[in-house]
Structure formats: structure tokens, C-alpha cells
Amino acid sequence: MSNTSNNAPEGRGSDGGASGTGAPPPRLALNGASKSFGAVHALRDATLELYGGHVRALLGENGAGKSTLVKTLAGVYRPDQGTVLVDGEPVDFHGPLDARDKGIAIIYQEPTLFPDLTVAENVFMGRQPLSAGKRIDKGELHRRTAELFRALGVAIAPERPVRGLSIADQQLVEIAKALSFEARVLIMDEPTAALSGNEVERLFRVTRTLREQGAAIMFISHRLEEIFAICDHVTVMRDGAVTYNGDLEGKTTDDLVRWMVGRDIDQLFPKVASEIGKPVLRVERLTREGVFFDVSFDVRAGEIVALSGLVGAGRSEVARAIFGIDRADGGHVEMLDRKLPNAKPTAAMRAGIGFVPEDRRQQGLVMDLSIARNATMTRMRSLAPGGIIRAARERALASEWATRLQLKYHRLDDTVGTLSGGNQQKVVLAKWLATQPRLLIIDEPTRGIDVGTKAEVHRLISELASRGLAVLMISSELPEVLGMADRVLVMHEGRLTGEFSRAEANEENIIRAATGQKEEVAA
Amino acid sequence: MSTADVAIDRRDAGERARRLSELVFRMRELGIVIALLALIAVTAILEPRFIEWDSLKDLARNASIIAIIAAGQTLVILTRNIDLSVGSVLGLAAFFCGDMLSNHNMPIIVAIALCILLGAMCGVVNGVLTTFGRVPALVVTLGTMYVFRGIAFVYTDGRQINAETLPDSFLNIGTGTLIGIPTIALIAFVVVLIVGLYLSNYRSGRELYAIGSNDAAAKLAGIRVDRRVVGAFVASGALAGLGGALYAARFGTVDATAGTGYELTVISAAVVGGVAINGGVGSVYGAAIGAVLLGCITSSLIVLRIDSFWQQAAVGALLIAAIAFDRLVGLRLDAALRQRSARRA
Fold first, then answer.
1. Helix residue spans in A24-137 (DSSP H)
2. Residue B64: pLDDT above 90?
3. Residue B319 pLDDT exceeds 60
4. Residue in A114, A202, A205 nearest the CB of B213
5. Which of A20, B158, B176, B234 has the most neighbouring CB atoms within 10 Å?
């Protein structure tokens, strides 16, 4: 932390550009960077710069391209186009170690530490101070670690193991590590997501200390009030592109929200009107300690209820608890007026719940088995009288669903891994629909699915609802939520913070509730 | 803002977490020492001759070879790998050593050095296949366990080494004493001490822990993971080679089946001694105490005239108890931490 320049060559509008004349070049900058994964443009012509002695906020919805941007700066990804500049010089990172050597430290949401080793060893792993005979000088090791923590103004004992440290303390260990190799750029990816109020205060104190010492800091957060508390500059992203890049001063929460949203709903969601009937699922004050609290809502027959919110708000966890994968610590779930036992997925299935998980590859399908076997997996028992699967019955059932869902496949015997993402999702749907559920929980129905198939999956879900199926859909994509849902529930940090009817729901009020801006508790 | 203020608002939560996790860390080795003492005490009460000096010397001799190989195995297990080939390496080295001494009149020290080298070469094969071949260590060493044993059978060609053909000074290493302590136990003590000091005081030693604790983070910290893992396998092989030479010195009679099944005893010793099978945790001292405990169980059951079949069952039960205990403590710790962070939020 040697450089203590306090220049602020900022204040450009959203036009971006890295042209500062006279002033020192930014410590770290991204110039016109683009990055695509297959057909998905994760980053489009993004430009931003980090200056010593300043804190920049990086804002954007889920999937806006923030993590891709961070990973590009960290040397994890190489941009397809555009350049990364360190002190104004273009650099070509071949891996995270290259970035580290240039003094760039990333503090990920999940710290990357060695739980079994001491704090001091974690800070200095591979660079421990040595005494004569190449032995590790433990006294010096602990002294230097203690010194780093003193500079940060926190009390963590260097000789204790990392296992058992809170996430907040682990982040501070990461920050100490960054300081130990004299990082000049510190990027923190949602550092406050798992912290309590006091811990956030402490992190901010540390951040301010580092800023005074001249570090260039970037801070990713969804909590807008935090951004106003600590940041000098802000970059807002939407759909992989930077929509604002400049000073934070004089800007309001409204401005930030406006730059984050305003996406075009460029895909058509064929929403079919359906008759909404009696409640099928009723969730009463469901709580899982430390994850979500007091969640109550219902889902009616024929209704699509979207559970919206930011990643980590606890949405998937609520779904898992409803289906009985995770144990709830309080509250209960009723299905068709009958209480479900806690933590029993088989009971949930028998009561008529189908669950399409977020991670198709890991949890939804067995990638090495055939399409037919996957599609009929939930019906295995009825296909196998006496314990032996009747191949003919399996094929008949599978091909029936393949036709109904318009699955595009070569042969039913092909492994499911050969299908495209959208068609894999259809197989998962078939698997659950074959159980004739009354309620379908779908976590991120169209993640990683190309645009064309997306609309088809939406059509399917919509049609199923119109035939009386109750649907609870978790989605991080606002257009999908707005296009599909009859009712939108919003979660923020484990609590329901908003409920909107189809007519009321719009991007702004959902984002507000999702970032905890307006306390409008569901009835 | 003063450090003192921060310290005060941190003390409560931090202190409790620290005490909890420190307790867990100490318990790993403390538990086994208590078990060992309890076993000795119970046996001694039932049969006082058990703690006579001669009997204890025997105990030390029996545990020594296992402790030496367990020291090498600990290095491998710490990196979240495993070496199943040590028993076969021991057999190969034991016959090689006996052959060199009885049929080729090689100086003792050279023969032992060559055994260590032979073991190290076996370790290179294991390490290279595991790291650069990207084959799981369990599969690689399961394979080389058979391969090395097969080589031993070809090499011995049905022959057997007998104590009469071996020089007395060599046999003395296995059965004699130095300043009143069994020589072989002194060797084991020195080996364990060296490996222990290496693990706690040298960068590469600490890196073995880092690799087993979090492989991805180790790569990010710039650790040459592959090189370290190969090193661990080489050390394990070398110590198994040394163990082979000592086996020949201790028993005098060696054929191609020497050391069959040792790999499981060695791994049991390490695991019972608190070396986590998932890597990252444990010490070579714990593994050595584990070796003594296993040896002690065998001897005490013999002394107490309990059927030797029970010995295997006892070792197995102990192994499961040790792992279950570890797991239980781990789960408790996780639960306690979750509750704590929930209360804070």
C-alpha cells in the first residue's frame, strides 16, 4: 500500500472511456471488454476503472454480468475482446496467479481458506517467514500476522485454526492475506451478504482504513444503503453491459434502481389465462435457523406463484424445506389441508408435490442414463412389478411424455446428456408430471436454456397451470417472473418482503423489495 | 477506533468458538493416549507381568515397523490420497535386503540404503500415476500393491531367506538394544521425530496440510500440488523400504509374502491416531501412538489369553469408533456454529 494518490479523475457519464489525461492512470481498468459463453453474451463492451484511494461499487441484477466482470479482472477468464489494464498498461492474465502477482486480490463471497490450518498459516501459506536452515520462523509468522490484523484494527488470534471462524472473520483473514502480498487492488464480491450488522460495520471500518492507505477497492453489493455508506464511484450493469459508470455523489437510490432495471422484455411469454381455484399448498411461518424466517404464503390450483429475490435470499432453501429435503426448524407445510411431516421428501411426493431443482445436471437428471429411464424414474415402481423394469412399459410412458412435451430427441435410448439444455429440462418436467402432481415447484425453470426453447418451457408451464396445476416458480429473471406469474412473492435476506399481484408487479417494485428498500410484508 | 474496543466486542463470540475448536483439535490425540493408557492399565491389573520391562520392550519392537510406515502413510493421507502398496513394498524390500546380505555379502548400511531407494522408486511410480496420470490414488496403489507383490514372487522364485544366513550385526538391529532400549524402537523414534519436525516446521510440510485441507485454495496460493503429492508418495515408499529392511532384521525369515496385509494395519494406525482420512488433519505423532495402541491390543489379548480372532474384531471396532467419533465431533461443531451465527443475525 505505498501509493497514496488521492486524485479523482472521475465524473464521466455513462459514456465510459478511459482517457484521463494528465492524471495518473487507474490502478486497474477494463476497456471495452466482451466475453461470451456459447450464445450467451455475459459481458458486452464493458469499461470501468479503479483508482487508488477510492471505493467503487459494482451493481446489477442477478445475471447482469458482475461475476464475469470480476473473474475477468481476476485472470480467471480472458476477455474475447477488449483489454485489462494495470497502471495504464495492457496486461494478459493467464490465470489467477498472474493477477495476484500484479497486486490484484479478490475476496470471494465464500472464502478460499484452509480450515484445518491456523490463521497465520493461511495468511502466509507458501510465503512463511523462514529462519536459519529454511525452518519456518513461527514467532515471526505470528508476529507479522498480528501486525496485519492490528493494521486492520481487528482482533483475531494468529495461532487459532480457521475452522470455527465466522464468515466475517474469514473474510478478514482473506483481507490480511491480500495485504501480506501488498495487494494494491482489492475486489470484494458481495462481502456483506453473510454478515450481521456489527460485522458489516467492522468491515466498513477496515475498508475505510485501506482506502486511506491508498488501496483501490471495488465492492459488490445488493444492499444499496451500504453502497451509499462506503463508495465514491459506482458502475451499474444490466444484461452484460455497463449502464452507468461514474460518481456516486448526487445520485439517489431511484437512479441506481432505474439503471439496474429497464430491461426489454424481448421474449414472448405465452401466458395462458387460467382459472384460479382453492389453495393447494399452504406454508405457515416456515423457519430454518440462519437461512429463512417466518415464511408464510399459499399457492392455489391453476396459479403460478413466482418467488423472486436475489441469489442467496433463501428462495431455493424455502423450496427445499417445503419438499422436505432440508429440515425446517419452525412452522409447517400443508398440502391440500393436510400437514406434511418435516424433512420427508417421499411424503411430499406422495402428497402430490413435484420438485424440479435448480441444478439439472447434478440434481435433476442422471446424465449417463437414457432419456427413457430418466423420464420415467419417478414411476419406476409401477413400471417394475416384481422389481424388474419392463422395458416396453418404460418406453411407452417415456414416448407418451416426449410427444406431449414436444421433446426433440434422436432415440429414447440416447443418454440424456446428449440433449440440449431446454430439452433436458423437458425431461425433468416429464419425470415429475408423470407422477401427476398437484403442485409443481420449479427452481430456475429456464437457466442455461436458449431463447427459443425458453418460450416453449414457459408455454408448457403456463398450459399445465391452466389445467389446474399449482405452480411455485423460483426465478432470478425478472422478465420471466413478470411474464409468467399470477402473483409475485419477493424475498430479501430470508424474509418475505413483498407480494404483488400480476397487475401490481413491475421491475421497480420487485427490485425494491428484493434489495430491502421497502418493507411491505405479505399479508 | 482503538484495537481494545474492537477486541472487547469480539471477545465473547470469538473466544467461545476458539475454545470449542481448540478442544476438538486437542481431543484427537488426547483421546487415543487415554485409550492406550486405559488398555495398559486394565491389562496390567489382570496380568501384572504385562508391564515388565521385557514385555514392554517387545511391545515397542512390535509397534516400530508399523509406526515407521505409518509415518510415511500420514504424509500421503494428509494430502487426501492413500498408499495401499506399502505392504508389498515392504515385502519386496525385505527379501531384497536379505538376498543382498546373505548371498552377495553387501555391507549392511549399503543394503539398507538400497532398500530405502527401492521403496522410493516404488513411490515415484505411485506418485506419478496419481498426479500426472490423474488416476485416483486408491486405484493406483491397489494396482501397484498387486504389481509389487507379483514382482516379489518372481524375484524370490520360491526361495526363502533364513536367519542363519544373515549377519548377526544385522539381526541385532531388529532384536538387540542400544542403551537398554530396543534399537529398532530408537530408529522408529528418530524417523517419527524427523517426519514430525518436517511437517510442522518446513514450508513443504505445511503445504501437505494445505493441499489436503483445500486443494483448490492450495493451487491459488501457488503451491505446486503435484510435486508435493509425488514427494509424499516417495517418502511413503522410502519408509516402507526401510520398514522392509527392519522386517528382515527383526524376523530373520523372509519370503515373498512378507508384510502381506500390513497396508491395512498401517492405515488403521494412522486413522486411529487421528489422521483424517479426508486429509488436512492429523500428526505423525498421533499415527505413531496409533501404531503402539494397535500393537498393544494384540499383545494384551495374547497376555489375557483371549482368542486371537477377537484381536481383528477389536482393531476393526476401534477403527470405526475413531472415525465415528471424529465425524460426530465434526457434526456437533458445525451445528454449534450454525446456531451461533443464527443467534447473531
1. 66-73, 96-101, 119-124
2. yes
3. yes
4. A114
5. B234
Q: What's the pLDDT tens digit per position in A272-284? A: 778 888 999 999 9
Do the Cβ atoms of B6 and A202 come within 8 Å? Answer: yes
Q: Provide the 10 A C-beta neighbour count for residue A9.
A: 16
Q: List, for chain A, all residue ranges whose pLDDT scores fall below the cut of 50.
A: 1-20, 264-267, 519-523
A 448-487 residues with CB below 8 A of B? none
| Residues of chain B by 3-state class (helix, strand, coil), percent to 5 | 80, 0, 15
Asked if A289 and B342 come within 8 Å (Cβ–Cβ), the reply is yes
Model confidence pLDDT, tens digit, residues B3-47: 444 444 444 445 555 555 555 555 666 777 888 888 888 888 988
By Cβ distance, the residue of B17, B25, B338 closest to A290 is: B338
- HEC secondary structure over B22-81: HHHHHHHHHHHHHHHHHHHHHHHHHCHHHHCHHHHHHHHHHHHHHHHHHHHHHHHHHCCC
Backbone angles phi, psi at A220, to 5 degrees: -105, 130
pLDDT level of residue B330 (50, 70, 90 thresholds): low
| Chain B contact set for A135 (CB, 8 A) | 201-202
Q: Using a CB-CB distance cutoff of 8 angstroms, which residues of chain B are in contact with residue A153?
A: 1, 3, 6
DSSP string for residues in A106-130: EE-SS----TTSBHHHHHHTT---B
List the strands of the sheet with A304-309, edge to edge. Answer: A353-356, A439-443, A470-474, A304-309, A487-492, A495-501
Helix, strand and coil content of chain A, in percent to the nearest 5, comes to: 35, 25, 40
Residues of B with CB under 8 A from a CB of A: 1, 3, 6-7, 9-11, 13-14, 17-18, 20-22, 25, 201-203, 206-207, 209-210, 212-214, 216-218, 220-223, 276, 280-281, 333, 337-339, 341-342, 344-345
Give the model confidence (pLDDT) of B212-227 as tens digits.
Answer: 998 888 888 888 999 9
pLDDT of residue A93: 87
What is the pLDDT, as a whole number, of residue A14?
Answer: 38
* pLDDT value, residue A522: 43
Q: Residue B154: its pLDDT value, please? A: 94
A45 burial class (0-12, 13-18, 19+ CB within 10 angstroms)? middle
Burial of B117 by CB count in 10 Å (0-12 exposed, 13-18 middle, 19+ buried)? Answer: middle
**DSSP letters spanning B234-245:** HHHHHHHHHHHH
- Output the pLDDT for position A10: 39
In A194-240, DSSP assigns E strands to 216-220, 233-238
Mean pLDDT, to the nearest integer, of B245-268? Answer: 92
Contact A28, A98 (CB under 8 A): no
Other CB atoms within 10 A of residue A482 CB: 21
Beta bridge partners of A41: A36
pLDDT at B82 over 80: yes
CA A367 from chain centre, in angstroms, equals: 24
3-state secondary structure of A190: coil
DSSP string, B186-197: HHHHHHHHHHHH
The string of DSSP letters for B126-173 reads HHHHHHTS---HHHHHHHHHHHHHHHHHHHHTT--B-GGGS-HHHHHH
DSSP A228-266: HHH-SEEEEEETTEEEEEEE-TT--HHHHHHHH------
pLDDT reported for residue B228: 95
Three-state secondary structure call for residue A146: helix
Q: Please say whether the beta carbons of A455 and A268 come within 8 A.
A: yes
What's the half-sphere exposure (Cβ side, CA atoms, 13 Å) at A389?
Answer: 12
- Mean predicted confidence (pLDDT) in B226-239: 96
